[in-house]
Protein: Peptidase C56
Organism: Faucicola atlantae
Amino acid sequence: MAKIAFLVDTDFEQVEYTQPRDLLQQKGHDTVLITTQDNKQVRGLNHTDPADHFTADLLIGDASVSDFDALVLPGGGANSDALRFKDSAQQFVKQFVDSGKPVAAICHAPWIFVDTKIADGKRLTAYETIAIDLKNAGANFEDKSVVVDGNIITSRQPDDIPDFADAIDSALKA
């Protein structure tokens, strides 16, 4: 059983957290919700409509890459935009990528790969509105349900979640 970190700020696309979490738990993995919000209170969105509130298990400052086997970044425009500008999130993502452990990002979440310079030379996918940002950062953008490049796994949107979860599970078993 692998231990998987899910990192959010707040106002994330709820289904991009709950559905991969549930699918990965069904496959026997343990999941932990980590946030950059000091009070650990985060909110999901259904597109732009407020959805459920969640209490994160850990603050990012209390999380260590060595405690986890993989990192998942749910999307949502507001959440992803906030994370990409937070030094703590950038450092955590960079440490995960450098560790060689799987790092999975869906929808707008691959935006952080632009600000961390991870996108350059990588094969990536994401929600169509950030494709140009990834291309401008040097990524080779592919319009597919899931793209795996080394330890980086990316998907485009909620319809891709089953393929996304399967790719994460496969990477953990490799």
The mean pLDDT is 98. The longest helix spans residues 14-26. DSSP finds six helices and twelve strands in the chain.
